[in-house]
Structure formats: structure tokens, C-alpha cells
Amino acid sequence: MDIATLKTKGLLRAVSAAPAMPAAFPFGLGLAGLHEVAEAGYGDRAAVTGFVLAATRQAKQGAWLWISQTKLAGDLGHVSQAALRQMQAVMPQRLNVETRTLAEALWAVEEAVVSGAVSLVIAEVEAADFTATRRLTLASGRYGVPVILMMPQTCEGATAAATRWRIRPRPSAPNRYDPQAPGNPRWRAVLERCRTAPNATGASFDLEWNDETLSLSVVSGLAAGPAAPRPAERETPARRRAS
Amino acid sequence: MLHEKSAHGLTVAAANAAAKLAGIHAGMRFSDARASLPALMAEEIDREADARALRLLARWMNGYSPLVSLDGEDGLLLETTGCDHLFGGEAAMAVSLSGRLTQTGYTHQIAVAGTPGAAQALARYGGTESAPQILPSGAERSGLCELPVQALRLSPEATTLLRRFGLTRIGQLYEIDRKALTRRFRSRQAADAVCLRLDQALGLRLEPVAPLRPPPEHAWRLACPEPLTQAAGVEAGLQQLAETLYADLSGKGLGAQHFVFTAFHSDGQVSDVSAQAARPVRAADHILRLFREKIGKIDPGFGIDLLLLEALRTGPMDMGSRPLSGDLAATSVDEVALSALADRINARLGDGTVSLTLTDARHAPDKAERRIPFTGEMPSAEAGLRDMQGLRPVRMLGWAERVDVIAQVPDGPPLSFVWRRVLRRVVRSDGPERIAPEWWLHLPGQAARPAALPRTRDYYRIEDAEGRRYWVFREGLYDDGRGQLPEWFVQGLFA
User: Most-buried pick from A127, A147, B147, B478 (CB within 10 A)?
Assistant: First the structure.
């Protein structure tokens, strides 16, 4: 029996094994599958963006497609090329798509995943229900293009995504050179849902991003305490309100 | 009869055949016309609607020839070179055109000649019979001989002058000495105009014709023996055309970036959709995908009898083969696949949806980046990025947002500020990073008032009690002599 016959009988078929999802931090974020990263409160989008860029620094090289809804981009700003350069060891090629509606944004995500032309799709959307996430998860698994959805703090409920993270900023690390200046950024990342490692669900990570070594490290709860003590306030004779 | 308001009151603007028989012609007073024929039906002329209808008709004429131009307010000029054989010769083409126009209800007069001037003269003054007149190329001299001089598209003054000389027919102009004719006119231009029009009609001088639409570089037609009434038929037709396109263009090694698909309806309507590609393409399935979202706009209605697919902006195609393995490739970005993706997104969500971020070598952070539509080529990732700059926020707001700040005067960092209606207490701060305005753009003499010049900005990296980090700046200094106090803005958010 030759190969063609085997194929027609369905005994032999192409198997595209999904890449194994690592069961350790960051649980495949930016490497495979669909992941949701949500804000803990309004205004935490910068922390979400920082976390995503930090966690994807080992992503496979290639073009990125950054999809956002116009009204969200107007409210939360856009990711600057300079910051991308400062946070990624190898600068990715980035294409931007701005859509009017949520449906168009999700359609663009799926289209990009199916095309296989990009190595990572990041979408900033206002919501994504179970059906949409299920659809994107299947497409992402089938075509091997990871997808990250950045969601607002209203993101709740069922999801088919591999993980759902909730990120809040924390007081930054002490600055070695100037105790009054902010240091390395720190975030608290809570793993709300995790399909690959169900017993990791609910784990919380206190993370610190080092912008010189481009490394993300877990800091202990003690070190992640309150900010470094400030020197005593100097007497400031003139404090005035400048419009 | 149609009338319009003029300087002399209501005048007749156009009259149909029956009214003309009764002696009513364009230009006569409306009251005279009404007096001579009390049963006259009159209506006001709508010149805008006429112009619209003429343009629609011109678009429909693209089914006969790609080069159609307007001729005055009531004429169309078709360049039929190379098109007539599709209909079995000039005579058959004119008859087919005439038949279709009669069905649609237009009165018309068709003439075919070797030059635009001769065709125009024949169509407008060549007689009243409705049969198309065909003047073989080279026979202009004898064909135009008996026509009145008005047929040469001259100004009314020139026509009057020629009539005073006793020159009423075009044939009389042939033998006249040009110099003698020039001397009779008041100005040289007027005389030259007469000679130019005569030469153009006779084919001695070229006459440029400005087509309404740019002619396509390649076009494929699909004439339907039975009018198509189903949308599925239109799609099948497009598929057939796209396959022909692929075969033709791949023979030439070409691709195209702009496609126009036009459906000519049997009732004289035309509908068209267009699709653009970021880089030259020719694959049939790609073209079909670009049109998939839009083809629904073509409503077959009473039937479509001709489909036309035109390719514009053709160019050589990038024939590079894909790397065998992603690991060996110099770059892992496949621009061809990216353009195909961008085309699909643009086709559905509107042109320009997919954009690139370009970095400019400018100091002002809000001017250092701009977005341009993706045109199929990725810039080098490092282009325009500078190494020597401070930390930049991960999110830049679309515009700097003004905030109320309590800060030390003159150059202290903020102590607290209100951004988006929430009071934020600053715990730690770093700065300032002073960014001066681009003085070379505002050299003395160009700017009117010093107050209108941009001010120096001091940027601070600050962190509030909740751990959120901001990039704020104070625009202006307290002692820069600009009059008003400096103001504070939030420019971006740090991770």
C-alpha cells in the first residue's frame, strides 16, 4: 500500500502538533495560543502594555500586527516606537490597524492569524466574549500565531483564552542613584485563569522590569514593599499653584 | 420644450423634434414660442441633471471604448481605434450603439470619422437622418466640404465675420490664402483659431483629447450572451475574468496594484467597484478575495450584459522565491504575505486602515513619530531611531493633556496634579529633561510675534502614590518673558 492510498483512506494525515504550552511563567504568553491581559483599574493600561512587552521579549522574530479600536486609541494613546525599541532586544516590525468597531477588530485579528504573515498579533479591544475567544484560540492553535488581547478592567466572565492576567502597577523599585526618582517599574500580575496549568490559577507574581538588562524578575513580597524612604522634606518657602 | 432664465427673460433652451417642426428653436423668447404654438409643453431646464446624465452615459460608453471624453454639454467623443473589431467593424459598432441608445430613449446622432473635429462636425451638422454617418479616414476633405462653417467649433464672432466675407461652407475655406484670411481678422489669435480648427478637422494637426477616466493599462471584457440577473453570475464572471487576467499578466511578468470591475447594465446603468493592492499582484484568488467584500454592491437589476475588469498601475512583480526555512532567512518578515494581509484588511475596512509608524529624527516627542499608510514595504526597523535619549513612556497620548499642577516655582517637579478629574499625589519624580523647541523652524522674520513661538519644555518622570508613572512637562519657563505663566501637560504614561 503506497502513501497516496493511505492518505485517501485517512490512515495517514498531516499532523500539525500545537507547540507545547509551557506550564511556567509566562505560561505561553506571546509564544502560542490566545492570552488576555486585563487592567486592574482604569488607567493601568501602561502597566498592561509594559507587562506584555516585557513578557514577549523572547517571542519569535517577525512582523507584529497591532490592532486597536479607534476610540480606545484616542483614550489610551498609542505605543511609541521609542518605547518598543527600549523594551525589545530586537526591534520588531510593526503594522498598525485601527478599526471602528469591536467586530472589525476581532475580524482583523482572525484574518491576520489565518494569513500566517505575522509572528504576533496584539489587539486592544473593549471586550471579547466566549465565542470570539474560542474562535481565535482555535485559529491561533491551528496556524501557530500567538495572539494577545489587551482588555479594559471590565473584562470578566468566561473565556476560552489560555490565560487571563490582571495587571496593576506597584510602587517602583528603589532607585540606586537618586532616592527621590522612580526606579525600575514593578507590577503585580495575577493569573486569573490558566488552562495549561490549572493549579497555577490565582497565582500572583510581583514582577520587576530592568530596562538595562531587559530582564523580568520576580521580586519577593518584602522587597516589593513600600517605596524607599524619602529624605526629610526640605523647607520650601514658595509653593505656588501654577494654573 | 425646455426654457431657462436669461438676461432677456425666459428663453427657449432646447426643443424637441415636434417643436422644431413648428419653428421653435433654442435661443428664441419663450413668449414668442408660446404665441406661435399655444399648446406648447414647457418645463424648466435642469442643466446639472443633464450634466450628470451625460457623465453616466459616458461611463456606460466605456463598454465600447476605454477612452471617452465629454464634448460640450451634449456630446460624447469616443476613441474607437482598436475597439471596432470587437463589434465587427465601425459600421456595425455604430449601429449597435445607436440601437442601444434608442432603447434607452435618447435621441442621438452618430458620426464616425478619422479626426475628432470631423466626427464632431458631421454629428452636429451632418444632417438630420438618424442613421450613423461614417467617413473613412482620409476622406475628411471631401466629406466636410458641404458643411456650414459653424461646424468647425468657432466662436460666434468668427462665424459672423466669415459669413460677412461670404464664406459659409467649410469647402470654401480650403482654397483661401491663409495670409489673406489672417489679415481680415481683428486679432491674430482669432485668425489662428479658424486655421487651427480647420487643420484639426482635416487631420493636419493633432487634437489632444482628455478622457474622463484614465485609460487602463490592461482590460478584459466578458460579453454575456444572456443578460446576467443573478449575483452568482456576476461572481462567476469576475472569476473568469480574473483567471484571464492571471494568464495574460503572468505571460508578461506583470502585476497590478489597482483593479476596477465594471458591470454594464442593459438599461444603461453602470456600476463599478475598485480594489487596491499594496504591491503588484495578479493571482486570481487574491483578486477575488479583494473584491469579495465589495461585489455585493453590484446589483444585477434588470440584467448585466457586459463585465469589464481593468488593471491600472501595473508594474513588474517581485518574483523572489520564499526562503526554504525561516531560520536561514535574513529577515523573517515576508513582505508579500504581509501585503496580501494588508490588502484584505484595507479592502474590507477602508483604504489606509493598515499603517506603519515612521520615526523622524526630531527632538519634540510628539513630532518624532508619524503614521503612514502601508505601501507594501517595511522600513528598516532601526530607521530614524536615536540612541541618545532618555527613557520614553510606553504609551504616548494622542495629544498632550493639560493638567492642573501644584509645583515648586520656578523649576520644581509637580507635587500633585489633577489628571482626568482625579487628584494624584506625586511620590517620586525625576527630571527635568529639557527639550528646546526647534528654533530653526522659527527663524526671525518668519514668525510674527515671539508669543506665537513654541516654548521650551521641561519633562519630568513622576510616580504617584498608587505606583502609576507619568511623563509630564511644563511648557515654558517662568522667566522666559512670554507674558503668560507656564502650563503643565501629561504627554505619556510609563509602564
Answer: A147
